[in-house]
Amino acid sequence: MSTLTKQNHIGRKISRIRELRDMKQEALAQAMGTNQQAISAIENSETVDDEKLAEVAKALGVSVEAIKNFSDEAAINYFNNFTDTKDSNVNFGNHCSFNPLDKLMEVVDENKKLYERLLQAEKDKLEYVEKLLNAK
């Protein structure tokens, strides 16, 4: 088998991306609404039609281009370019420009206002029904 054929084997690329995402064939099959045997067949195929490739890409959470251009060397280089986080400014945490607790409290206040409006609407309905019953 030539190196060129191996590099362009779409099924192997799908398999490697799936493995890097720590996903089993069964999980990918479930995400695509198919079975594990179909995923195995796709991963053993040298080529995959564009429609099926788009489905696979969506289920894996990557773009079609990412699958087509994937290589183990590029993935290794990508991860090797990260340095030790203690000695650099690289930080993989979330950077919020707001205080998450403040946002949470805003949502709680909003829910409280909505609940009070709902309660008032129910009281108004009850009052209206009582007026109708008393009128008879």
Task: Name the CATH architecture of the largest domain.
Answer: Orthogonal Bundle
Oligomer: single chain
Number of helices: 8
**What structural class do helix, strand and pairing data support?**
mainly alpha
Question: What is the terminal separation in angstroms?
Answer: 91 Å
Q: What amount of the residues lies in strands?
A: under 5%
Question: Main beta sheet, described?
Answer: none
What is the averaged pLDDT score? 83
How many discrete structural domains? Answer: 2
* CATH hierarchy class name of the largest domain: Mainly Alpha
Tally of extended strands?
0
CATH superfamily of the largest domain: lambda repressor-like DNA-binding domains
Radius of gyration: 27 Å
Sequence of secondary-structure elements: HHHHHHHH
Low-pLDDT sequence parts: 1-5
- Overall shape: it is elongated
Find the CATH topology of the largest domain: 434 Repressor (Amino-terminal Domain)
Helix content: 55-70%
Organism: Flavobacterium psychroterrae
InterPro entries: Cro/C1-type_HTH, Lambda_DNA-bd_dom_sf
Protein name: Helix-turn-helix transcriptional regulator
Domain HTH cro/C1-type: 14-67
